Amino acid sequence: MSRLQVVSGKGGTGKTTVAAALALALATEGKRTLLVEVEGRQGIAQLFETEALPYEERKIAVAPGGGEVYALAIDPELALLDYLQMFYKMGGAGRALKKLGAIDFATTIAPGLRDVLLTGKACEAVRRKEKSGRFVYDYVVMDAPPTGRITRFLNVNDEVAGLARIGPIHNQAQAVMRVLKSAETAVHLVTLLEEMPVQETADGIAELRAARLPVGRIIVNMVRPEVLDGTDLELVRSVPRAAVAKSLSSAGLGGARRGGNAERLVDPLLAQADEYAERHALEHEQRAVLQELGLPVHELPLLAEGMDLAGLYELAGELREQGLS
Amino acid sequence: MSRPEAAQTHDAARQHPPHLSPTRVLDLDPLLDDPKTRIVVCCGSGGVGKTTTAAALGLRAAERGRKVVVLTIDPARRLAQSMGIDSLDNTPRRVKGVEGVGELHAMMLDMKRTFDEIVEAHADPERAAAILGNPFYQSLSAGFAGTQEYMAMEKLGQLRAKDEWDLIVVDTPPSRSALDFLDAPKRLGSFLDGKLIRVLLAPAKVGGRAGMKFLNVGMSMMTGALGKLLGGQLLKDVQTFVAAMDSMFGGFRTRADATYKLLQAPGTAFLVVAAPERDALREAAYFVERLAAEDMPLAGLVLNRVHGSGADRLSAERALAAAENLEEPRIVDQEGGKAGLRNSPDTYDSSESDASEAPAPDEGSPAVTDMERTAAKDEPQSVTPHLERSVDQLAASLLRLHAERMQLLSREQRTRDRFTALHPEVAVAEVAALPGDVHDLAGLRDIGNRLAANRPELPDPAVGA
Question: How far apart are CA B64 and CA B58, in angstroms?
């Protein structure tokens, strides 16, 4: 199992949720994981129902079996100052650079430096060891940028290493790329069973492969339960309306005759069944497309009550059962 | 085609308005029709249908007679194909198949091309060649953080300056903090005005400036530090780039300011796009606040993928209870008479909702008797016991499906209410969910109709409560 687990996916597919559930799942049996947020949205804090995370690694959850999940929201500006201090003892120069607007420049405008810092920080956490020689974190899970940007994000160090051909940035960039392109890393893509996210997943995988970044698994999120089975769907097309009305009436929903309450439910309920059938067929197609991509595919259920902390533990259990940890 | 109908829907909506809804309804047609509306900006977090909304609004405005251009940033392939713009050549192309006298043009932003064009337009050929060949420039223009946002706004400025279109509909980049496109011009401006530039230009310029001498030591230290950090070659590349671009900076700054002002102008309307999900609406609330803080004119919120139900008077709980009834054959068979007498006479209807409605003919008569009568008289042969069993199963499944729908509805309602409580001033247009994706102009047109139809097929909270 790779020690750096990168979770990407189209916007709206719930990649933050999946990343958090994965961090929980990987933290079982006394393991320690770090969940890293790079997009400054404080999505992790909201999921774990805690206050906004500062730029510091702090414990946010305990996993079943005594494991621990730490979280870190990386602030690029602080990461840069940190980095200058740590590697070059340039704390004072860092402050001077900040006054000049150089930090702002470096973290927002300069090509990719921001991404260099974010990936660099994550890789640093992966490699960090205790005095005993044991890794501080057994796993690092990154809630990464969306599919459309993931390859460029992870590959930024290649580009930077090409731009800065010598010097510490060059060396740092190369060190990061060594981690990212090795078996120590796996990039997972979260999708829904809808056309656009599936298409984007296929494109994303092709891009990652072209850049020789290690693709991990496909995680289909928010999979709706099967409510109508094949027999039901067949019957929906042929069933006499009166028969359905009678059945509803016998269940205590009112009169089955024309204008009766049960009878008036028939059309809307059948219309919902038609919609379901249409969606079901689309989902079936998309599932087939995903199977063609040659990667392990996992499915996580849609939580009827919406996403909350209990739901997160449920999804983590699901991931464990499916062998993701 | 459907224009007269659409207009009627509007009148109807105005005649029986808001007791149906606690929020203000966003009426999109008047916004699209108003000749004073020149720019519509669609913003929102990723995955909420922002690009589709922009395209559907563009098509609708065009079919209502305006000359429209839609600027998309990174459309899904199918959507681009549906407008016939799968070639990425950075210029607006006329979309075929638009009905009526209006015109729809569409384009996909090519970031690098846009940046190159600026350089070519503002530097002499020799200098332009130097800039375009600079490795630092090549990385910058290929779309690192901020460039896409800046170029989108630059393109918007260009399209507006051309004045060829009545209306420009802009999709915004899927930025990390979604409003980066607002910040990009300012950031670039402050960078260009900033001291950093002078530091970077230090070897060439610093010496001569009066009043800055005391800074010189600091500056050379700074270039030293930068050199140490970036590596000498990169620093040299950056310096060459900055020096080459120096003459263009004034232009950049002016344009960034102009674009920013354009966004604040009365002819601009921002639409925040969201889906009725917690994260998307949280992001939407943030947008609304940011736009207000920047004096950007917000027209309202487009809430995509809202679910409705034609049977919303039947609650999830009741539907589930009824489904269980149907799935427990022994209870129904053996105690059917009693259960029927107790449960069936239209309890939910009379107690919960439409008391105003005229009673149905069979109202009040025990439903089991009613059913037996129907079974005996109306279709004695067609409903065999076996079929009856599977119809019961089907009915139970239909009820479970309905329960799921009702749970979804109430979840969406709760999420939306949270937003409305925070921002009651924001008008909302709700768009009914579609089962599939959009593949062609007809699909976009359909979404346009839904956008303008004001709360289509939504539950009526006054009755449902």
Answer: 10
